[in-house]
Amino acid sequence: MKGPAILLRIIAALVALGLAALALPLHDVVAVPVFLALVPALALIRSAKGGLIVALAALAVMAGPGLVTFAPLPDEAGTLPMLRGLLPVLLVWLLLWLAVESLAALAPASPLLRRVLAVAIPLIFGATILWLWEALVAILGVSPVILPPPSAIAARFATSLPVLWGDFVQTVVKGALSGYVMGCGAAVLAAVAVDRSTFLQRGLLPVGNFVAALPIVGIAPILVMWFGFDWQSKAAVVVVMVFFPMLVNTVEGLKASDAMQRDLMATYGAGYWQSLWKLRLPAAMPFIFNGLKICTTLALIGAIVAEFFGSPTQGMGFRISTEVGRLGLDMVWSEIAVAALAGSAFYAVVAVVEKGVTFWHPSQRGR
Question: CA-CA distance, 1 to 117, in Å (whole number)?
Answer without folding.
Answer: 13
